[in-house]
Design a protein that fits this description.
By secondary structure, this protein is mostly helical. Among the domains are: 405-470, Tetratricopeptide repeat domain (Serine Threonine Protein Phosphatase 5, Tetratricopeptide repeat, Alpha Horseshoe); 676-766, Serine Threonine Protein Phosphatase 5, Tetratricopeptide repeat, CATH 1.25.40. The chain is 79% helix and 0% strand.
């Protein structure tokens, strides 16, 4: 029987098909195929593709130890630390004697801060693998992480003695020598690492940084060009070269270079973002926004571009556009932490600190080590008046992210507000370390020094602030403040004027100049200075606020009210001007008009608790205790930590027979927020008196009198009356009599004068 050619072809192929089917059905063969494919991807730097292949191998054989180990290596390369740890743990469970895996586990634990666990790994390596150079290498790295650089260097040299051909050993030795101030010895080791592996980029970057730190810019530039040639597809050496140009003062060269780099990286996000990031770090926000706006149009699916663009839009006060883009991200991924942080920022700016707190606490719960989230949460707490929580969150932020300059600045400002000069100095010094070319850190450290009367170092810092930023008003304002606090009022005028020459819109500079005139009893000159500056900057709400304050102090109520009205017209959110406008109207005797002004202001500022406080005070002046209490409650609904609302409501409750325990809690809240307020101390002391805690009342009232003296405020007869009552109840009649007599001496017609007379009469008859 003759077989057709078609049939012969089918029959001829059949055994081959069976053979292939048989091989692909062998699990060992399939897992090995995936494993080898993963190794090939890994060797060419395609780490994500390698990970996929190793995962496929593990699916076939979950106990494939080598695949777990290689998968861990892939995760390390892509910085997926938790996944890498999980895979290394599994590899070691399957192969406890895989000492290379112990080395990688040590490296991973050191990098992620697991020092104690890393110690266990290196102890095992020392015991089981004592003569292996990688053992000494890992011991050295652990010692370096513990800041024991001398011992680390010894171990690194042992590793080199065992294997003098490993370039990574020389690189690490050089870095350890730099950390231990042996920089002269570090240079040759950087060069040795390059000699052993000319194609490695990291040693060239490190050597360039070494040269840059020593001012050897030409040599640094040579190494960076070499790094670019070694790895032209990597944007890191280009970013380093741009930073070098900046340090050399070649900003235009850096900009031109990065513009070309952007063209060289049309499909690499980190590469085409270099120019926009350069504008951001050089504080050229207008160009940064323009560049990122263009990038967003070109790469709408690049999530990092979108996020960076949102951040810039927020900084430029374009909240509506930022919100739209951020909502798009959260719609696709509601748990995106960066997008949630942006939402929290936007809520703060929108006057919703409560909503921001909820949003940001979601992030800190999901990612407790997110320093940026803790920083913005501190801002939300501060806006809510919860200074204790704000301080706690700020400290956590700088602990997690000591490099976060904004957090250091916020910590400094909060410390200044609380009068904590030690923390202010520490935070300001850290700001200087992070941003030595900006004046802010020097200025804030000078403030701490002035408050401690360390005028010589304060002057050094102020002069440095002017040196690094001669066109900024900041240093000159502080130079004026330095002269002012030393009583050299006339001398302070010149630096304040220099500040205004540099920044005609500087509220701080005008305030300083006006205070200098007032201190010299030249009120008319202060008013003239305000009018002169308004002529130069007629759109500045703060200037009209300062003018109104000066006119108010001269009892020029009509002029003051007109100035505050103009200030509010320019900025409907200027709460200081809003409150003072109400106070002027009340001082004119028109309480109802003041109430109407405050209630109208609430329409534009519905979350401004201070407006409810002033409404409460106005109702108190009308003896409408119910409406006053309601206003204070409204203020506390917006800001449960508002010290003024807490104090006033507590005082109101005591006067009207309210719950003393609730009043005590409110007064204690007020005391936390305003520890230097005599009025708050008096309220709390009087509640202690009402509850029979006379000694506590006495101690607090004595402190209140000291605070009054320190602030040079007029002597308050109420303080002496309350102290007299406390002395009388505690069985100290002589001291009580002295206080009641003081009440009558200060003001025989005060509200408590009649009772003071009665108390004196009773003391004489007893």
């Amino acid at each position: 029987m003759k077989i057709s050619s078609a049939v012969r072809l089918v029959l001829g192929l059949a055994p081959i098909a069976v053979l292939f089917y048989s091989c692909s059905g062998d699990p060992n063969a399939r897992k090995q195929k995936y494993f080898q494919s993963g190794q090939q991807y890994f060797e060419t730097g395609q780490y994500r593709e390698a990970a996929i292949e190793f995962v496929n191998a593990i699916k076939i054989d979950p106990d494939y130890a080598d695949a777990h180990y290689e998968l861990a290596q892939s995760y390390i390369k892509t910085q997926q630390w938790p996944s890498a740890y999980q895979e290394l743990t599994r590899a070691l469970e399957l192969q406890p004697d895989n000492y290379s895996a112990h080395v990688e586990m040590s490296r991973l634990l050191i990098a992620t801060g697991g020092i104690k666990q890393a110690q266990e790994q290196t102890d095992l390596l020392r015991q089981k693998w004592p003569n292996e150079p990688k053992t000494h290498f890992m011991v050295a790295n652990l010692l370096a992480a513990q800041a024991n650089f001398s011992a680390a260097i010894d171990e690194m040299q042992k590793a080199i003695a065992l294997d003098p051909s490993d370039w990574d050993f020389y690189l690490n030795l050089a870095l350890m020598q730099m950390k231990s101030n042996q920089s002269d010895a570090a240079g040759p080791n950087f060069k040795k690492a390059i000699e052993l592996n000319p194609k490695a980029m990291d040693p060239r970057l490190m050597l360039a940084s070494y040269y840059q730190s020593r001012g050897r810019f030409a040599e640094a530039e040579q190494q960076l060009h070499g790094a670019i040639q070694v790895d032209p597809k990597n944007p890191d050496p280009r970013a380093a070269l741009a930073r070098l140009y900046l340090e050399e003062g070649k900003k235009s060269d850096a900009e031109d270079f990065l513009r070309q780099s952007k063209r060289d990286f049309p499909d690499n996000s980190a590469g085409y973002r270099l120019l926009g990031d350069f504008y951001f770090v050089t504080h050229d926000l207008d160009n940064a926004v323009a560049e990122y706006g263009e990038l967003y149009q070109e790469h709408p699916k690049d999530l990092q571009v979108k996020k960076n663009y949102i951040e810039l839009l927020i900084l430029k006060n374009r909240e509506q556009e930022a919100t739209k883009l951020d909502d798009e991200i959260l719609k696709n991924n509601p748990s995106d932490n960066e997008a949630l942080i942006y939402r929290g920022e936007l809520q703060i700016r929108d006057g919703d600190p409560s909503g921001a707190t909820t949003t940001l606490q979601t992030v800190t719960k999901n990612d407790p080590n997110n320093g940026l989230a803790h920083y913005h949460l501190s801002v939300a707490f501060q806006k809510s008046g919860n200074l204790e929580s704000a301080d706690s969150e700020l400290r956590e932020a700088v602990r997690l992210r000591p490099d976060l300059a904004d957090a250091q600045r916020a910590l400094a400002l909060l410390a200044m507000r609380k009068g904590d000069m030690t923390t202010l100095a520490q935070a300001a010094t850290q700001m200087i370390n992070l941003r030595p070319t900006l004046p802010d850190g020097y200025v804030l450290r000078a403030v701490s020094e002035m408050n401690r009367k360390l005028f010589t170092p304060a002057e050094t810092d102020v002069r440095k602030a002017i040196e690094v930023s001669p066109n900024s008003s900041t240093g000159y304002v502080q130079m004026g403040n330095l002269a002012f606090v030393q009583g050299r009022f006339k001398e302070s005028e010149s630096p304040y004027r220099q500040a205004l020459d540099r920044e005609p819109n500087s509220n701080d500079a005008l305030r300083g100049l006006m205070n200098a005139y007032v201190a010299q009893k030249q009120n008319d000159e202060a008013i003239a200075a305000a009018n002169a500056q308004i002529a130069k900057s007629p759109g500045n709400s703060g200037f009209y606020d300062l003018l109104g304050t000066a006119l108010f102090s001269k009892n020029d109520f009509s002029g003051a009210e007109a100035a505050f009205e103009k200030s509010v017209a320019l900025d409907k959110h200027n709460s200081d001007a809003l409150l003072k406008r109400c106070q002027v109207q009340a001082a004119k005797g028109d309480t109802d008009q003041a109430l109407g002004t405050a209630q109208q202001a609430l329409q534009n500022n519905p979350r401004e608790s201070s407006l409810y406080v002033v409404i409460g005070e106005l109702y108190e002046s009308k003896s409408d205790w119910k409406k006053a209490g309601d206003a204070y409650q409204n203020a506390l609904t917006l800001n449960s930590q508002d010290p003024m609302a807490s104090n006033n409501l507590a005082k109101l409750m005591v006067q009207n027979g309210g719950n003393l325990d609730v009043a005590l809690s409110l007064a204690q809240t007020a005391r936390k927020g305003q520890p230097d307020s005599t009025a708050v101390a008096d309220t709390l002391a009087w509640i202690y008196y009402q509850k029979g805690a006379y000694q506590s009342a006495i101690g607090l009232l004595q402190e209140a009198l000291k605070l009054q003296e320190k602030s040079k405020a007029p002597d308050n007869p109420d303080l002496h009356y309350h102290l007299g009552m406390a002395y009388a109840k505690s069985g100290q009649p002589v001291l009580a009599r002295q206080q009641f007599e003081r009440v009558l001496m200060i003001n025989p017609n005060s509200s408590n004068a009649a009772d003071a007379k009665n108390q004196l009469a009773q003391l004489k008859s007893s």
